Amino acid sequence: MIERYTRPEMARIWSEQNQFQKWLEVEILAAEALAQLGKAPKAAVARIRKRARFKIARIRKIEREVKHEMIAFLSSVAESLGDDARFLHVGMTSSDVMDTALALQLKQAASLLSQDVRDLIKVLRRQAFRYKRVPMIGRTHGVHAEPITFGLKLALWHEEMKRNLSRLEKAAEEVSVGKISGAVGTFAQISPKVEAYVCKKSGLKPAPVSNQIVQRDRHAFFFATLAVVASSLEKFAVEIRHLQRTEVMEAEEPFTKGQKGSSAMPHKRNPILSENVSGLARLMRSYAVAALENVPLWHERDISHSSVERVIAPDATILLDFMLCRITYVLRDLCVYPENMRRNLERSGGAIFSERVLLRLVDKGLSRDAAYRMVQRHALKAGKNGGDLKREILKDAEIRRTLSAGDIEEIWDLKHYLKNVDFIFDRVFH
């Protein structure tokens, strides 16, 4: 992933240094297990633990000759150990080390992402309560529907991110699996006790059954989950972009001192942060597709998945980390304009109260079809050329035979639409 979207902590997880360190740790743990089984001298393994080193430049130099990264790595480590190196990689295949180490890196990355999600949830909670009773128009199909509050919109997002946190934790558990079972997963050349030891010490679960690799349905689930989280973030971003439109202007991204919105037009304040999140979400979904393509490998394994994962494992986690931090900042410092929300609420000429009029007529004994017809003929004109639904309802003799002026006045009480806000908040934030 390009530096622009890479935050330092996630970068460290996917550094070559951390990758090879994880490989080395798996190798050393396997050697320790062999020593416990009497298959390697404990003194030799102690020396391995103390002395084992690698040099990235040396690995790459050897790799250019042997064309095999694991062999190059082991050769570099062996140069620091001498004869003790023979107790490394005993009965193991490359994937034993690489898949187990990848699980450790993904577990690290998932832990960081989970904290990012928790930070976003905290911001959403705070903002939901801040705007709990700030009324705004609810829109369906992009068209004015009925009143909601901005706090309810944020509570909805809060609940979604709670689900995403659960999904992410489940996906992390699903992929936190190691395997030390040899060339095709039969343990023919290595004891299952080695696998058990390595996984326990690493905080992983042993794969109940494997072939040469940990099965990629686990990884597909992980990356698909990241894509779901990213799609939620895009949903929030798209909403902010719509709310920042000049014609709406109900909420706006933070715009810092000295910031410029356009190279040509000095007046512009563009929703560039949210647009960025929308664009990156497209990449995230493509990574999920790539992970799904990795599931059907040939027989006991081929390496077509390897090149894919070298890209998507760091890129997907790096991007989601960046996206989460970006949208958290946007929502934390969001500029909200309640006065514009109120103005837009009133733009429809009272048409937003049409359902209440309809239901009140039905309550008074009219058929739904008849009531709908009566209300619609006025509601479709409301907000156009100064049209006002309440005024027209009051003038409609047919309706007035059923509804009194008091009935109509009571219908136009905005508080009716907000009466269950506390109930909803209690369910979300219990």
Describe this structure in words.
The two termini are 40 Å apart. A hairpin with a 2-residue loop joins strand 1 (135-140) and strand 2. The chain has a two-stranded antiparallel sheet with strand order 1-2. Strands 3-4 form a two-stranded parallel ribbon. It has a two-stranded antiparallel sheet with strand order 5-6. The mean pLDDT is 96. Helix content is 62%, strand content 5%. The protein folds into three domains: 1-90, Fumarase/aspartase (N-terminal domain) (Fumarase C, Chain B, domain 1), CATH 1.10.275.10; 92-342, Fumarase C, Chain A, domain 2 (Up-down Bundle), CATH 1.20.200.10; 351-411, Ribonucleotide Reductase Protein R1, domain 1 (Orthogonal Bundle), CATH 1.10.40. The chain has 430 residues and is mainly α. Helix 7 packs antiparallel against helix 9 (217-243). The chain has helices at residues 8-13, 16-36, 42-51, 56-66, 69-78, 94-130, 150-175, 192-202, 217-243, 272-293, 304-332, 338-345, 354-363, 368-379, 389-395, 397-400, 405-411, 421-428; strands at residues 135-140, 143-149, 177-178, 205-206, 251-252, 335-336.
Q: Can you count the helices?
A: 18
Radius of gyration: 30 Å
- Largest sheet: spatial strand order: 1-2
Name of the top-level CATH class of the largest domain: Mainly Alpha
Strand content: under 5%
* Biggest β-sheet strands, sense, barrel: 2 strands, antiparallel
Low-confidence stretches: none
CATH topology of the largest domain: Fumarase C, Chain A, domain 2
Q: Which structural class fits the helix and strand makeup?
A: mainly alpha
Q: What spatial form do the alpha-carbon principal axes imply?
A: elongated
Distance between the termini: 40 Å
